Amino acid sequence: MAQSVKLSGITKTYAAHTVLNDVSLDIQPGEFLTLVGASGCGKSTLLRIIAGLEEADRGTISIGERDVSHLDPQKRDVAMVFQSYALYPHMTVGENIATPLRMSRLSTCARWPLVGMATPGRREALASIGKDVRAVATQLQIEALLGRKPAQLSGGQRQRVALARAMVRRPAAFLMDEPLSNLDAKLRVHMRTELTELHRQLGATFIYVTHDQVEAMTMSDRIALMADGNILQLGTPDELYHRPASLRVAQFIGSPTINCLEAIVTNGVVQLIGVPVANLHEAEHRSVTVAVRPEALRLHAEPGDVTLQATAHRLEHHGADCFLLAMQHDQERMLHARLSPAEASGVAIDQPIRLHFRPAGAHFFAADGLRIEPPFDESAAQAITQRQVGMSA
Ligand SMILES: Nc1ncnc2c1ncn2[C@@H]1O[C@H](COP(=O)(O)OP(=O)(O)OP(=O)(O)O)[C@@H](O)[C@H]1O
């Protein structure tokens, strides 16, 4: 049955280096929770601590109602799926999948090659193991591979076998450490869908580690975005994308990356190159970053828009979208805009271009990187009259 996983104050230090800094997290039963962050942020260490493969210096881990902080990995009722698959090369697929059940359902004596055959109950236990192995192989559509060795499988098939070996134990939670990173790009996209579907079918708790924000965004119920051993933000993919709590979160989530424009604040008014774009209530800010998603930059202007003047530099065609890179005048900064192919067809490379955005659609971050919320009400909008940013007078 799916169980909750609760982490309280997990801290881990290697030599003088703090890898996890008082991390707390409540994962709901049946939730798909992704730990995402740049390489070295501590996500694998956190997963290994949940699995019991590493010990935390401080903090507790509960799975369901049980405090498992000091339990051996095999007693925690979790199954780990590794990036490397970690299959036994000398065993067949069937034997690989059966291994966790043989360990839990057969006594040490019954596992011995010859002597074990006489152990009472062995035959029945093996029959039930075989039945469960076939059931999980059917669910993952790998029945035909049960007699093969791992070396005779493709990467995607090995990944399924590793999943089957985890599933067969019906664990309280699945812990997955970059399980798709060894697959080619097309198969990775396919396996994302399969894993999400599998999660739905099993209704199990999944804790998934990746450095790939697209994987995190497409698969998760919630994402914990980590940096330097801390959770920067915990929320749904939608929350992290549309209401990033800090500039670091805004810059990590989304591809192409968000456009960051530096603005100064004079008497509570945010000015981009001398042009007011928003009013702030808080008087204490001196400078803010105005961050604009690539899809929020448009070629056509609407009333109340801010306009950036730039030179079109390059167009990348991605089928349904085109990414425009344009050098913003005066700033020597490359802007990224996501355009439709129809819009992009009118863009002339190396020619001046105007990119427009709605101030209320931008994100504002204070000098310390934390999100601020300028009020975009009618009166504030009316107070902003001149919005031609970066244009020659
Ligand atoms: N056994 C260890 N001894 C010393 N330092 C370690 C050990 N394991 C991990 N680290 C360090 O802890 C930090 C976090 O490592 P971790 O593997 O958790 O990062 P990660 O976010 O999973 O990165 P990646 O995506 O590259 O796997 C890194 O700086 C790493 O070098």
From TrEMBL:
The protein's matches in PROSITE patterns, at most eight in alphabetical order, are given as: ABC_TRANSPORTER_1 (PS00211), ABC_TRANSPORTER_2 (PS50893)
Q: List cellular component terms (GO).
A: ATP-binding cassette (ABC) transporter complex, substrate-binding subunit-containing
Key words, A-Z: ATP-binding, Nucleotide-binding, Transport
SMART domains from the UniProt entry: AAA
Q: Which residues form the ABC transporter domain?
A: 5-253
* Recorded superkingdom: Bacteria
Which GO molecular-function terms appear in the entry? ABC-type transporter activity; ATP binding; ATP hydrolysis activity
**Is ATP-binding given among the entry's keywords?**
yes
Please list the coiled coil stretches: none
Instruction: Name one process (GO BP) from the record.
Output: carbohydrate transport
- Which PANTHER family does the record cross-reference, listed alphabetically? MALTODEXTRIN IMPORT ATP-BINDING PROTEIN MSMX, OSMOPROTECTIVE COMPOUNDS UPTAKE ATP-BINDING PROTEIN GGTA
Q: What is this protein called?
A: Glycerol-3-phosphate ABC transporter ATP-binding protein
Q: Per the UniProt entry, what species is this protein from, by scientific name?
A: Billgrantia endophytica
Query: Organism classification, top ranks?
Result: Bacteria, Pseudomonadati, Pseudomonadota, Gammaproteobacteria, Oceanospirillales
